[in-house]
């Protein structure tokens, strides 16, 4: 069987962390996301996933945030069947297969050109692939701007430098008549602490960006309005976390401040 050997830069390589976390979730007896396509894909990639030191906490939180972001995409698509979906920093995520939108939806997977190249080889699908650096907004002209847009950005925010995420958000909000942005949030502390996380340390990346107040993006000048902040420590799926993680997560769930340091999903309308 052919196996793909990824040749990626450090930031691009982070896509293997989330892919592997989803794959490990799919192999659990009671998975949270159950993304067997990710498990098959990870099995076809020639890479030492062991060096990423992906721990159970990362497996379940990655699976859970993906599930919540999928729910947001499905709900938007159900309400706007003629929309476009943009998965920013898509990596090798199989979100489109999981969400299975109707043919009326145009789905765009966007990431660096080398990622999109790898993706087109090992994960054929019906999405439009756009190879671009998201810090530059030229790529947006390739996307029809006359339809509502569901924009999802999973695991992207801390890896975009300076205020490039904010600038990109303004360009996106300008481009579409209306839409929703769904992302997983990182507090400033979580983003700072990330560089000490064994997985990120293993790759030698300095991820740095975060924000604490879920309303902060409302001041980015993109016309964003907070719809929802979901603190995932309080999600019912925590019942399926392995022990002692489940007990620890339930304890954390009692505090909003502590829960914000963990996985959270934020949704904004514009
Ligand atoms: C942690 S991975 C997450 C991948 C995917 N969203 C997932 O959940 O599996 C971060 C992704 O963001 C992409 N990325 C980071 N900065 C980017 C930029 N400036 N332009 C395009 N893609 C970027 C990386 O290449 C990588 O695929």
Model description:
The protein has 270 residues and is of the alpha/beta class. It has one domain: Vaccinia Virus protein VP39 (Rossmann fold, 3-Layer(aba) Sandwich). The chain is 38% helix and 14% strand. It contains 11 helices and 7 strands. The chain has a 7-stranded mixed sheet with strand order 3-2-1-4-5-7-6. Helix 2 packs across helix 3 and helix 2 crosses helix 4. It is globular. The N and C termini lie far apart (46 Å). The structure holds S-adenosylmethionine. S-adenosylmethionine binds next to helix 1 and helix 2. S-adenosylmethionine (SAM) binds next to helix 1 and helix 2.
Q: Main sheet?
A: 7 strands, mixed
CATH topology: Rossmann fold
Measured as a percent range, the helix fraction is 25-40%
Strand tally is 7
When the domains are counted, the total is 1
Q: Given the helix and strand composition, which structural class is it?
A: alpha/beta
Rough shape?
A: globular
State mean pLDDT (0 to 100 scale).
94
**Ligand list:** S-adenosylmethionine
Order of helices and strands: HHHHEHEHEEHEHHEHHE
CATH architecture: 3-Layer(aba) Sandwich
Number of helices: 11
CATH class: Alpha Beta
N-to-C terminal Cα separation, in Å? 46 Å
Strand order of the largest sheet: 3-2-1-4-5-7-6
Radius of gyration: 17 Å
CATH superfamily: Vaccinia Virus protein VP39
């Amino acid at each position: 069987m052919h196996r793909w050997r990824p040749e990626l830069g450090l930031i691009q390589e982070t896509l293997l962390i989330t892919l592997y976390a989803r794959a490990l979730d799919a192999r659990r007896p009671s998975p949270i996301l159950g993304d067997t396509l990710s498990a098959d894909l990870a099995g076809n990639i020639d890479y030492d996933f062991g060096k990423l030191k992906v721990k159970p906490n990362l497996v379940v939180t990655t699976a859970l945030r993906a599930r919540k972001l999928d729910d947001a995409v499905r709900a938007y698509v159900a309400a706007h069947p003629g929309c476009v979906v943009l998965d920013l920093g898509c990596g090798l995520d199989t979100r489109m297969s999981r969400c299975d939108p109707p043919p009326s939806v145009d789905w765009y997977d966007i990431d660096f050109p080398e990622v999109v190249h790898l993706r087109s080889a090992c994960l054929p699908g019906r999405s439009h692939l756009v190879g671009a650096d998201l810090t530059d907004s030229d790529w947006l002209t390739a996307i029809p701007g006359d339809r509502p847009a569901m924009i999802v950005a999973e695991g992207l925010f801390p890896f975009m430098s300076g205020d490039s995420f904010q600038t990109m958000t303004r360009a996106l909000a300008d481009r579409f008549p209306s839409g929703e942005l769904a992302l997983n949030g990182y507090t400033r502390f979580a983003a700072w602490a990330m560089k000490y996380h064994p997985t990120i340390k293993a790759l030698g990346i300095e991820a740095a960006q975060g924000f604490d107040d879920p309303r902060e993006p409302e001041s980015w000048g993109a016309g964003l309005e907070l719809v929802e902040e979901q603190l995932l420590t309080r999600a019912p799926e925590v019942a399926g976390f392995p022990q002692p993680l489940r007990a620890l997560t339930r304890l954390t769930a009692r505090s909003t401040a502590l829960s914000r340091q963990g996985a959270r999903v934020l949704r904004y309308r514009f």
